[in-house]
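A favour, since you know our structure tokens better than I do. Go ahead and set the record down below.
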Amino acid sequence: MQFGHFDDTNKEYVIQTPKTPLPWINYLGMDGFFSLVSNTSGGYSFYKDAKLLRLTRYRYNSVPLDSNGHYFYIKDGDTVWNPGWQPTKTELDSYECRHGLGYTHFSSEKNGLKAEDLVFVPVKDSCEISRVTLTNDSDQEKQISLFSYVEFCLWNAMDDMTNYQRNLSIGEVEIHGSTIYHKTEYRERRNHYAIYHVNAPVDGFDTDRDSFLGIYNGADKPDVVLAGESKNSVASGWYPIGSHHLKVTLKPGESKTYIFLLGYVENPKDDKWESLGVVRKAPALAMIDRYDTTAKVNAAFEELKKYWTELLARFTVHSPDEKLNRMVNIWNQYQCMVTFNMSRSASYYESGIGRGMGFRDSCQDLLGFLHLIPDKARERILDIAATQFPDGSAYHQYQPLTKKGNLDIGSGFNDDPLWLIAAASAYVRETGDTSLLSENVPFDNKEELAAPLMEHLRRSFDYTLEHLGPHGLPLIGRADWNDCLNLNCFSDTPGESFQTCANYESHKAESVFIAGMFVKYAKEYGDLCELLGNTAEKGRAYKASETMEQTILTAGWDGEWFLRAYDAFGEKIGSKECEEGQIFIEPQGFCVLAGVGVKEGYAEKAMASVKERLDTKYGVALQQPPYATYHLNLGEISSYPPGYKENAGIFCHNNPWISIGETVIGHGDRAFEVYKKTCPAYIENISEIHRTEPYVYSQMVAGKDARNFGEAKNSWLTGTAAWTFVNVSQHILGIYPTLNGLSVDPCLPSDIEGFTATRQYRGATYDIKVTNEDHAQKGIKAFLVDGKPIEGHVIPYDPDKKHYQVEIIM
């Protein structure tokens, strides 16, 4: 069942009913200011950090679902309704929500009155704009009231939800004309505040929530709106809001447009103005002036659309499969950009309070947006590296505003260091910019400990070598990629309560997954060493990689698939010897994509075992069989019910590893089959089962052992976005950046007879045409560059050349 459709021409998803299975959201903003907006106008805004600089309130786990939002109420006679349906939920005569790239457009109608609301964040500005247009489609004059509504958060979202004894006495606002200034905490901060403005004289306002709603009312029945008159309330302590009241008269066929602006404002850092209480309005007035007319807002909107058009033009594909095209050209890359901005910090599943930016998460996300914003990727790598410790380990998370490591989570996830090598290698392969490697970066954000990034990479490499277990495999620490596989977590004393990972440093659990990572990224580290002329270090890295590969083939092979790990007692995890959890997805995918066991035939066996034992109609499960009971020696993984999350759920993030593994052994049909099972465009018609947005990836889908098999959770902020784009662009389509030039070596499903693609790479444009009339899955018959044949599949890089015509016959 579908609740909307793709509009590929306008790069939009069109939602045709407000009653979607879950709120379907969009992200607005690309720099410092961000808003989340649902298809029923729910959501919130923040500046840079969803915890520390939250502008508006949102209530997670709320009843009814999806509260609060940025709402507009229309009172037309006795009828009150919202263009986005919520919160009044008045039955509308028509409704449409179009989620586009960086904007959302609502269009609804009730009783002959049409309301349109275009909401977006301008390029490089710290505000959200709503362009509200009212049109009288009836044959009678209409006199209506339009009320705006936002509820301000008192900046620190965690403190806002908990510290009531203080916060119910600090709310402060000012009202000047059509602008509401939210200045709570301005007395102590003195440099930031929020504004809510409309570009028309108002007939009233409210800034006190209890006055606007009524103490015992919800947002669905506000006293002020039902009465049709504002109270001109001024919040003092208690709950500050922003609401404007406009009385509008519309003749038949007449339209009127209003611009509402929600902005974050800082005074200049050198501003010595010390007066308490009254905000310094000049920066706000400058922001208001930039968007005070419809023409200015329309121009800002066109600039936003131009930004996305030019950005996504860096990689496009045209194939006979329109679903493949729309995911590659639009939605997959768009989601990669959102994960760049958010990591895992702010979604409808992450409150924006706890996790911040992840070390591992951000390194992986970078793989999906590097080709789009290499300069920002460079900055992100340096931010991540600065949270590394001198021994090569790292903080697992850091806060986006301070860029400092998260002390509450700490370190100990032993896969983290290797992801830094992956990110740096990908950057240099994409850009050819080796200056990154000599950039001085602090350890633990301490300038006195700064060293070149290449030294950070060396310590990442050595950290793994210096933390090997009894079988010669890397120690897992608190956990590896699977945060819930806590193999060192148990009580040393029978009957003692379990403490999460309290003993991980003193025990010897090992990870075959990290071993597979090391095989791949040790070589990439070695290649960077060679690029800088350090051939001895390259030799050391390659030798360590080869040694680790042999260790996997002996200590990490279970006969038909790769083991997952050894626990702290030296017992196998992910083995046929186990009663539960006999086979895991992670080592099968990563070991094969790293090339482990390919020539020995182990890779083929591992992929066959995945298909036989882990595959389902909705994707490849994380492990089988699930854990039916809790196992103290395994940690959190067995705390989930069977089929959910890490306990045999379909973790979409590592499905691409299986697909990439299939391309390594030349199985184009199987690689594409795995790709399609979790790809939103291919499963849009089961939205009533899947529930999450049909235009972006989710982190998890409930596995076959779950009660709600096929139901997805945790959409938007997931490494699935980056890894799937890596899979489809670099391995299925085969357009892969190397240190020496662009490689094109597709592994296609046999029913695709070819494709064309445009790829911008190191300042040049590559127009690529692949012909597959023989219905091959892998292999190149002819490779022409500008009409001349070349050997192999890497196009020689010429810094003076700006355009390449590439023709490949499979």
